[in-house]
Amino acid sequence: MTPPRRNNRPMRAVALLAALLLLCSGSGVAAPEPPPDRVYALVGKWTCSSPDKPAHTTTFVATRDGNSVDVVRHVRPATGAPYTAHDRFTYDPSGTWHVEVDAGSPRALQLTGPAWDKTKRDWAAEAHDDSGALVRLSFMAFSGTFMRTVTHQQPLGKTQSWFSDWCASGDASPAQRSCETPNVPPHTVVAAEPSTEGIPKTLRGTVNLIVSLDEDSNIESVSVASSPSAILSAAAVRAARQSTFQTMVKSCYAIPGRYLFTVKFGP
Length: 267
Known about the structure:
Blueprint: E1 11-14, E2 19-22, E3 44-49, E4 57-65, E5 68-76, E6 83-92, E7 96-101, E8 109-114, E9 122-128, E10 134-142, E11 145-153, E12 159-169, E13 187-190, E14 205-213, E15 219-226, H1 230-241, E16 244-246, E17 248-250, E18 253-255, E19 257-265
Antiparallel strand pairs: 1-19, 2-19, 3-4, 3-12, 4-5, 5-6, 6-7, 7-8, 9-10, 10-11, 11-12, 13-16, 14-15, 14-19, 17-18
């Protein structure tokens, strides 16, 4: 990313360094009435592609029956014959989702997850298998798209991704969408300089902030990840809120996210 302009002032803001977590705001095709839980927003038809090379493609069709969501996944691997898989999500009054992945097959997985609050952008269900490994089904929803990933974490901590799909509502996958600039990395457009007023000249250090952006690159929140001083933290937060950012754009979709913004005080 392009660093901010340097000047002779003793303090400067440093541009966004790295994307920490891709989160979501979109909810796909909604049920006829506002769903009490975001899992119900998966209802509808989605077309998916994998980030793997060579990629596989999937048609994801979800229907709702009361408190349950049934999913049929028609998978077309990069090599080998197409196949169909089934997932079932069942909600109980305790606030728990019971999820069966690859239902009815020898490799079926029984997972549990919490309610998916509509204010949250990611969700996961998990369980330990017979070998003690942690199996996790996660969703990260973006604006009009979502990422579905199944991971298998061995007891020693090594994680292997079983399957990953990026899906868009309708008949075209995110990879099939076209626009003038399909991919844009997250970056700082204008980095505001922190004010030096009220800060002792001997006070030095680096403040790391987490800046959350929505799909329009508006600042949703700024939080302190690390700081040597509350005085420096306050000045850094003000500088971040006065700065302008661009969130990530992937395959023409703007993706809300959380990013690291660093403000250095001193030479």
